[in-house]
Design brief:
Elements (H helix, E strand, L loop, with lengths): L4 H15 L17 H8 L4 E5 L2 E5 L6 E8 L2 H15 L6 E5 L5 E6 L3 E8 L2 E8 L6 H16 L2
Antiparallel strand pairs: 1-2, 2-3, 3-7, 4-5, 5-6, 6-7
């Protein structure tokens, strides 16, 4: 199933907001250091490999179109709050997306089921973590549950 135009717009706007953070904010340890392969397995049900992709980490299984992309960014004060709030507001504008405010993941977090999979954005101590599970299919409750499990580990490592 192809992602809808509104889902792609939502994804682009959310990522642009996060990328608008100051360049120095991206200087922290790489996103691939947040998780071990076994931590990501719940999303794939088999061993995965993480590869650096710019400032992000792309986890995948050879031969599968499914991919988990994690971007770790550090914002300060208002810039981090604005990026989080802007991303949260924009996902709420897509009537096809199922948005859930998450409990127990960082200081605050929300997940989004879309036509392409699941996204989860979390904030902890002024740091933002953006996780996208691109399943090439509509996101399911099972995907969200697995993403929560992975996100808790990644956020704990921030």
């Amino acid at each position: 199933m192809k992602p809808s135009a509104s889902s792609l717009r939502l994804l682009l706007v959310g990522h642009l907001l996060l990328l608008a953070l100051p360049r120095a904010a991206l200087a922290e340890a790489h996103a691939c250091t947040l998780l071990q392969p076994a931590d990501v397995t719940p999303l794939f049900a088999r061993p995965v490999v993480g590869k650096a992709n710019g400032g992000a980490c792309a986890w995948s299984v050879e031969g599968s179109p499914r991919k988990l992309i994690i971007a770790r960014m550090k914002g300060t004060g208002a810039s981090a709050e604005m990026a989080y709030a802007g991303a949260r507001k924009n996902v709420g504008m897509d009537p096809t997306a199922k948005v859930t405010d998450e409990q127990g993941i960082g200081d605050k977090a929300f997940s989004v089921q879309t036509s392409y999979g699941v996204s989860l954005i979390a904030s902890k101590g002024g740091r933002l973590l953006n996780m996208m599970f691109m399943a090439n299919a509509p996101g399911t409750e099972k995907d969200v549950a697995a993403m929560r499990q992975v996100a808790r580990k990644a956020v704990a490592a921030l």
